[in-house]
Write a sequence for this structure.
């Protein structure tokens, strides 16, 4: 009797930076370089193209958190400027570097789960096709003409 295979959730596979299919093999061959394939199950990672999504989400989220924390801290404590610069620099760099890899892995796992790929158009919208049911040239509606008045 074969037991059903439990696929890892995309969030779990992403946070562990593991293969989205087997959750065993490493997803990365470098810090942010995606490996060619999974060493365990052989899944080809050629589909993975998160582009700039991880960097945008990480910089936006960490930026909001660090700036919010800094603003509260600066008003409540009134630290010297050099401490503020240091805190912001460490917070932004540390936060972005700590979260960029798992967020990229999570987006790759989401692409695998949802079978994301290049967009393919069913119809390129050739003249006379493509979904308009009302003839916009005839204001009286389909089948009506001005001669039948």
């Amino acid at each position: 009797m074969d037991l059903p295979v439990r696929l890892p959730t995309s969030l779990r596979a992403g946070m562990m930076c593991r293969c989205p299919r087997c959750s065993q093999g490493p997803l990365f061959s470098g810090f942010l370089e995606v490996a060619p394939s999974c060493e365990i199950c052989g899944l080809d990672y050629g589909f993975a193209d998160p582009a700039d999504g991880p960097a945008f989400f990480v910089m936006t989220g960490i930026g909001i958190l660090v700036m919010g924390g800094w603003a509260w801290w600066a008003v409540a404590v009134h630290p010297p400027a050099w401490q503020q610069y240091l805190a912001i620099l460490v917070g932004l760099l540390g936060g972005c570097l700590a979260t960029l890899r798992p967020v990229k892995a999570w987006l790759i796992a989401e692409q695998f789960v949802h079978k994301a790929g290049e967009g393919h158009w069913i119809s390129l919208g050739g003249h006379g096709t493509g979904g308009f049911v009302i003839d916009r040239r005839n204001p009286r509606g389909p089948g009506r003409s001005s001669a039948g008045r």
